[in-house]
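Most newcomers find our protein records easier to grasp once they have seen one. Read left to right, the backbone structure tokens trace the chain's path through space. Nothing more is needed to start thinking about how sequence determines fold. An example says more than a description, so a record of this kind follows:
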Amino acid sequence: MSVAATVGDALAFEGVDFRVLRKLPVGAAEGCAKARLLKDAHGFVLTVTAVDRDLDISLLRRELHRELIPAGDEDLDELFCDCEVGSVPP
């Protein structure tokens, strides 16, 4: 399994150490991550949580002092143009 070029380039540019793991079979969600893209007037925030956890956007807003809302499909398509439409890579 490979990583989308835009994601890999962004991580490399920021000096983030990462590794690509193979995709687990369907039904083997334990240990997997899900991502949500949020936005506000200052830009985007990509959150990554365990697949069995919910994101507490209210808590995140308070902690980051930002008025974050979920980003739309048009934002996803613009930021992750080499990914499947509507998908957010963790």
